[in-house]
Amino acid sequence: MAKKIVVLGAGTAGTIVSNNLRRHLSDDWEITVIDRDDRHIYQPGLLFVPFGIQKSKTLVKSRKKFILPGVKFVLDEITHVDPEKKVVKTRNNSFDYDFLVVSTGCKVVPEENDGLLDAWGKNAFTFYYLEAADVLHRKLREFDGGKLVMDIAELPFKCPVAPIEFVFLADWYFKKRGIRNKVEIELVTPLQAAFTKPKAAAVFSRSAKEKNIKITTGFELNRVDGKAGYIESVQGEKVNYDMLVVVPTTVGDKVITDSGMDDGIGYVPTHQNTLQALKHEGVYVIGDATNVPTSKAGSVAHYEADVVVFNIMAEIHGVKPEEIFDGHSTCFIVYSKGTASLIDFNYKIEPLPGQFPAPHLGPFSLLKETKANWWGKLAFEPLYWNVLLGGRHLGMPPTLVMAGKEVG
Length: 408
Ligand SMILES: Cc1cc2nc3c(=O)[nH]c(=O)nc-3n(C[C@H](O)[C@H](O)[C@H](O)COP(=O)(O)OP(=O)(O)OC[C@H]3O[C@@H](n4cnc5c(N)ncnc54)[C@H](O)[C@@H]3O)c2cc1C
Known about the structure:
With 408 residues, this protein is of the alpha/beta class. It is built from eight helices and 24 strands.
């Protein structure tokens, strides 16, 4: 009888891992990937939509097109996981498995933030999902002066550099429109600095200062008062706004919580080096659904996929999974339309200056605003659709490489 691997969610992580597994395992292994819809969205492009740099419809493609023949794609809502009986239930079916890969991601839930829905679409917006990014695009065009606040409601959230990129792009956008002197820009974050890693945060803070962008730290959102135009923190601090752009509270998928597999806030407790679920045998977790202490980013999902495939193959081969994953994450940070920076780090090593991916050659520069980095950011999209989603290797290890980095 065929052995079975079931993958939950066909987003970035689930598509890469399913295809990567198919490339490595014999036909004795049946691979099934389940998702509720057939719309694969290139999420990094959502940042560009509000500023008219990219149109939202170009970011959406059919998931099916990117899943290899030989992987069974099921379009259905996953309703329950029983990791003891090794069964997944969907609205219309049920699937038993030998190995399970959880890649159900995470999503923003504005309804969790007091007062936010009253202001939603009036003077409070987000760019974290497609329809909302389009609304923000229209509203930004109408905005002709006042205070723009970019607020992160709480931790953890997806793509920790996106809010910084948003305020940098807002600076570029209002300059281009000739009204920068009429707009105040402020980034409000629950973090103690502009970013999770102190050295990179210092670099971003300097850039923000040069662009006349205020950063308010340690602000955990308690409520939004859209009528009076302010946000209030848990500690009672208030920040006024004319236009609020927010990363609402972010949670893992309900099915994880309903199946009793979560850590209390919707994420699966995951071994940070093997990527095995801590409480369940034969279960791996990948992408935004994990609780591992690194960025919730597509680059991380791609690196993790190599580790999950390695460890599933090791287990099939009768060998213990290895503690390979080091939290590796690589992110471009857009500074303006035409320039960007780049960071590459892991659980322990902070972003360092240097060249990437080839030592001394680059062509990308780490922790530095360059035009080449901008072109890298743009080139990443066709690479994503045509190479990475297919589960192909780029010849780079999934872990951080120190060659090309400058220490001290
Ligand atoms: C604005 C923005 C900018 C970003 N920029 C970058 C960037 O520059 N670089 C970068 O690396 N990353 C970036 N990211 C983050 C990146 O897109 C995500 O980290 C990545 O997509 C995570 O992949 P995932 O597979 O874990 O989750 P997803 O891609 O979200 O996929 C999860 C899938 O699971 C499915 N699913 C969940 N629950 C169920 C259920 N019950 N039944 C059926 N299906 C279900 C969903 O439909 C979805 O398709 C950005 C994200 C945003 C929002």
